[in-house]
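Think of the structure tokens as a kind of shorthand, similar to the way a musician reads notation: each symbol stands for something richer, in this case the local conformation of the backbone. In the example below we present two proteins back to back. Begin with the first one, reading the sequence and then the tokens, and try to describe in your own words what changes along the chain.
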Amino acid sequence: MEGTSPVTPTPPTSSESEAQETHLWEYIYIVLRRRRLVLAVFVAVTALATLRALLTRPVYEASAQILIERDTPNVLTFKEVAQVDAARDDYYQTQYKLLQSRLLARRVIETMNLLQDPEFGGPRSPEEMEAVKAAAPGASPVMERAIDSFLRKLRVLPVKNSRLVLVAYESYVPEMAAAAANWLSQLYIKQTLEFRYETSSEAAQWLGQQIEEQKAKVEAADLALQKVKEQEGIVNIEERRTLLEQKLKELGTALTTLRTDRLEKEALYNQMRNAANPEELPDVMRSPLVQALRIELATLERSQAQLLERYMDQHPEVVKVRNQIQETRKKIAAESQRVIRAAENDYKAAAAQEASVSSALEAAKAEALDLSRRSVQYDNAKREADAGKEVLNSLLSRHKQTDVAQELKNSNIRIVDAASVPRSPVRPQKTRDIAMGVALGLFLGIGLAFFLDYLDNTIKTPEDVRKQLGAPLLAVIPEISVPGDIVIIQGGVESPLADGYRLLRTSLTYSWPESSPRILLVTSTSAGEGKTVTSVNLALILASLGGKVLLIDCDLRRPQSNTLLHAKRSPGLSDLLVGRARPSEAIQRPAGTTLSLLAAGTRAPSPADLMTLQTMRDFLEGLRGFYDWIVLDTPPVGPVAEALILAPLTDGVVVVVGAEMVPRNGVRHTLERVHETGARLLGVVLNRAQVEKHSYYYGRYYGHYYGRYYGAPAPRPAVARGKVAHIREKRSAR
């Protein structure tokens, strides 16, 4: 076997596939390829949307806008009993739920008499209406169904970043929609006031009971207080206690003052009594008499000094002055003693006064202790009575406030904009709904097309062969749709089918630069892909060049070559291998052709055992010298082993892939099994390509070949044996 090294299929890895750029046209091609499906889904969805828009009964919606303030208008100076803490985060959520409460919905239904309205199953008989009114809340199925229907049509929509709320209601009748929204808003405000009034009433009733009980307690406390006064003989105890407290305070202050004065005078007296020279004491020096005597003494001493300058010491004038000086000094000493005795007297008087005030203070303390002992029970009874009176006064005040609050009809909720009768329905909006149907139909159609394309894992186009298989593409054979499948045209008639096989012949010719005899094996993954037709047509197109071509039908289980070429089945290959015929007897030339055919022959019980490796090697090598091309039509690789046995004995293997017939993984497995035998894989023939079905793809990639080049259909040649071979067989044979 000659030739270069085998061609190994190398399917692109996922990372390489992801790296390849996907052109926008490829997505468009998917949609165009399934255009009928896309169009069907688009038309169906659009038709349904149009019918729905035209047949749906119009629904009208009216909305009222209400304002819910956090704080109630501050009419009263005191806090109400039923005041709500609107600063809590859940306050508005609670109000929204109250707007959608079943109780409020029931009141609206009863107020508007909606049970008689056709939207709520009306009209109803008077007996049925009386039964509904007499039933307890939640006990009437008719009312409960009406409430459920009402709430389904109601929407509460808070206005973002505000305290406004939209109350919207839907109805088939525009007037009813507006009336329901307005009644709901009004009854909601009324219900809020009723809740507040009920709370105040309950509080007032409770306060009245508490006031009566508290009055009885206060009376009992007053009687107990009077009894204590009589037992202890206490009369006007509060005044006596006040006087005693004042007296104790005054005596304490006086005693402190007197003690301070006594201490000062005692210190002064001790200082004077212990002085070395009493005449030098400050108090003595401040005495006017002492000051006059000192002046007189100084005058006498100056006179004595002057007399001594003139007279002797014993002079009468000197003696007289000396005696006067002595007399003056005695007067000064006597006056000093008198000042000391006065300080002593002041000290003793202060001490006596202090003792007197201290005694009076102790007497007052004793009196206060006695009064405190006697007033213990009195104080307890007095506190009990005062506390009872304080509670009673608080209850009376709160009761009066509650009475006033009951009469106050203000609310923190009010209607800003009442609902008006809508002029146009909210649904259906025919233009919008039909447009949405068009968009949805287009989206679903395209989405379904992409989904089915994702699920479709077959080989459909040459691009799939390149990307998914990584094997050389030898030729694309288009599907034909004329009565009586034409195998090949030999007389120069041009057609995409003929040129497809010519392209295959050219690709095989380029596989071997030298012109030596070649043995080709044609196989496929599964039956029905057209490997037999491809083998026959390939042999015919090779023979059209004038060379010697032998077609061997190696599919001993399901032979088709002899049928397609109108030849005999036996003797054939099986007869040659078992020795029942010679090559000259088995090889035949079909009428109207220039090729030689070795049919399958007589049916063999075990073809794989018959076509052993050594037997077939010797057989094929013996034929190589007589023919330029030998084409082996073998069974598919998947079911049986004959193709894998013969592949290493050939110069190349051609794998026929039926377009949109076999999963790509199955084809990959076939290529891998061929490669494992050591055979040379020449490439893949994409057979039965749906050129007309995928005209957008082939028009883009092969427009020059399948489109514009054959702009006018070629004239169909007349049927002539030897010129055109007609093969009438089911499509599955291809």
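Once you have a description of the first chain, move to the second and do the same.
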Amino acid sequence: MVVSFFKKILKFKSKLIIDLYFLYKYLKQIYYFVEKNICNSRHMNVFGQNLRALVMKAMDLSPQGGWELVKVMPTPSFVVIGQEIHILHQFFFFYFYYARFFNIGYGELTDTFNSSRDNVGHGTHTLSIAGGNFVPGANVLGMGNGTVKGGSPRARVASYKVCWPDETNECVDPNTLAAFEAAIEDGVDVISISVGGEPKEFFSDALSVGAFHAVERGIVVVSSAGNVGPTPGTVSNVSPWILTVGASTIDRGFTNFVVLGNKKKFKGTSFSSKVLPVNKFYPLINAVDAKANNVSVSDAEVCDEGSLDPEKLAGKIVVCLRGGLPRVSKGYVAAKAGAVGMLVVNDEESGNAILTDSHVLPASHVTYDDSISIFQYINSTKTPMAYISSVMTELEITPSPVVADFSSRGPNTIEESILKPDIIAPGVNILAAYPDGIPLTEAPLDDRQSPFKVDSGTSMACPHIAGIVGLLKTLNPKWSPAAIKSAIMTTAKTTDNNFNPIVDYGGLEANPLAYGAGHVNPNSAMDPGLVYDITIDDYLNFLCARGYNTTQIKRISKKNFVCDKSFKVTDLNYPSISVTNLKMGPVAINRKLKNVGSPGTYVARVKTPLEVSIIVEPRILDFTAMDEEKSFKVLLNRSGKGKQEGYVFGELVWTDVNRHVRTPIVVNLGE
């Protein structure tokens, strides 16, 4: 076709021929560059090449509809959006397909916002976690220096913006659905969507409906569990066809120390780039003792805007209680009133969960236990003094992972028989890309900028899983979304780097209502041995069993479907087991496993809570061929032992010695 084209242009003037020839040569160079460096490059990890993983740009984001083409350039450092060249990020995105935006219902928007450009930073951060390339020397204001990469480096990515500036920063349903349909038509393989809200019935939840349409087309949908933990029953994005991700800590942190005048030393966390003179102590004051006139104690103790008296605070380190204003904003209030430093302390409800922030003054966030000692010291002397050390990057922290305190917990309030979250992944102090021109914090007068940012949330955990899904999709292109989800869940770990059970921030042993199947274990997910597969008809039968009528099912799927009336809610072939009320009598759970590895004989091992009797029939499954399926049944009943009520936990593990296919079991004993 190219040869024919050039034969036709030979009759034109020589200058035109030369110009077209050089254009052809230039495009050919780009083509070979892309083929060599993108399409044929290999990953530097066990999963191998991934050509098409899509990340929906955190769905920050929905629209009237817009499209911005991104042309591939002969350098991974730049992309072209429309007719402008923007340095989207220094190194991170190696192959950016395009960016699209959807903004129905927002009226007139300025050119700044009527675009797929990221004006907040959330989308850039999450997108780079999923698909960012290898970047040496990444750091934030000189801290956390090292090489970073996304979960699926060199993936081809695209962004879909559906959330817009509004009083509630809302992502309206038409935009969400439009973005899903666009992604489906664009032929993506993975959708990562780090947004959520109050759980809704599946047919009335736009994200759930859009996700179902994607799964119908073989696309894996990964979403965040929410940041409303540790309160039970707060998990969002609870549809069984969505892979729902909670957040955990990693073994790296940003640590500083608070030293009191009595020589006691407390470990805190901060990401403040400003430091106090080494070992210089300053007067320490409780924010309540620095309150301005006509200000309530409750406002002053949390360092609310205008609550502090500069005459009382100037030159001192102030202790502010967590709550009210955002933590970084407390620092701005304190600095404006003349404070040289700030301690953020937890109340009893917040416990010992501390978070790292890019503070505008020297600061440290300390636990509730340590705050008791700090207040006791302040009250014990007329001249309390303190020093805040500079921040250092701490590695090999133990224990880790720990379930993040903010990570939303189960049970699933829409359908308790589906355990949510499904998995946890790194979501605390995650260093990733950040757009140019946007300050690191929303604090007034904070103009600090960086090509990278450290942030926390299930929004950061979600793209970790999306990146892994992209790699698994490349390794096993014929696997269904349910099979990929099963591989990730059944190979998850429930122990930390000390080989002890994973704990929460309070140091108590965590359970599946906090971490689902456990913490993601990518290398094992590559070879799960067996998977729990689920078809679209299975999902529709699940909805029928929940009482959905034809009209409600049509809101989710366009498929003409006749319900199997014998199908029960508990028959959905989910990789976890959740029994809603064992007080009502014995429960039988039907499951089916598919062999995706070498032939083998798997034996069932059951970890049973004292109050429950669990029987697996049969206890041995013999697989002789790839894709062979075997069914089994799990019978649960009250054992008559123990006195615990509420939730108890166990597990079923199918093992052939080399592989361990683990299924968490959650049982609600009833009250």
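Compare your description with these statements about the second chain. Residues 1-94 have pLDDT under 50 and may be disordered.
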